[in-house]
Amino acid sequence: MSHTDNQRVRLTKRIFRESLIGLLHEKKLHQITVSELCGRAELNRSTFYKYYGNVYDVFAEIENEMIEQSKRCIHQIHNTNIQVVLQPLYHLLCYIRENADIYRMLLDNSVNSEFSVRLIDHTMAFLRNYSVLLQYDNQAYEEYVFSYLISGSIDITKNWIETGTRETPEEIAGLIYRLAAKILGLVG
Q: If 115 and its partner were Cys, which of 4, 93, 106, 147 is the partner (CB 3.0–4.6 Å)?
C-alpha cells in the first residue's frame, strides 16, 4: 500500500469517526444506522464495509484512540517530582480540551459506560505498578484509595469539560495533583 493509499484510508476513517460524533449529538448510538452514517459522511456503504462491520466498530475505534492517547500521557509519569508528574497530566488535559466533544461523548455513560471503566482499569494497573514510586505504602487500602483518586479525577475532568473548560489545563492538573497528594499523604 502506498503512502497516498494510507493517507486516503486515514482520511476516510476520520470522516466516518467525525460523522459518528456529529450524529451522537443528535441521537443515541444504538439508533444510528450504517446508512445514516454513510449519508452524513457522504461516503457509500461499500466504503464503510471495507473498514468496518457496523457503527459500533467506528465507536470502538474512537474509544481506542482516546484510550491510547490517555495511556501515552499516563505512562510519562516516572517519579513524584511535582513538575514531572504535572507534565503528563497537563498534556492529557490539553489533549482533552482539544477533543472536548469526543471526551464529553465518551464519558457520558448514556452513550457507553465502557470507556470510563477501561480508563479507570488501565490507570489502576499503572498505579499498582508505581505505588512504591508514589510513596504510598498502605497496602490494605491501596486499591480503594487509587480507585477513589481515579474516579474523582475523571469526575473533575468531566465537570471541567461540561462547564466549557474555563480553567486552563495547568489549573486543573494542579488541582488534581494537590488533591491526590493530600489523599496520599505526600503533603501536609
A: 106
Place of cell 505498578: 129
Q: pTM of the full predicted structure?
A: 0.68
Q: Model confidence over 13-38: pLDDT tens digits? A: 999 999 999 998 888 888 999 999 99
Residues 134/80, Cβ–Cβ less than 8 Å: yes
Q: Please enumerate in sequence order all residues whose Cβ is within 8 A of that of 13, keeping only pairs 6 or more positions apart, or say none.
A: 51, 61
Q: Do residues 116 and 70 lie in contact, with contact meaning Cβ atoms separated by under 8 Å?
A: no
Asked if 85 contacts 127 with a C-beta cutoff of 8 angstroms, the reply is: no
CA 29 to chain CA centroid, nearest Å: 18
Residue 75: all three cell numbers together: 505512562
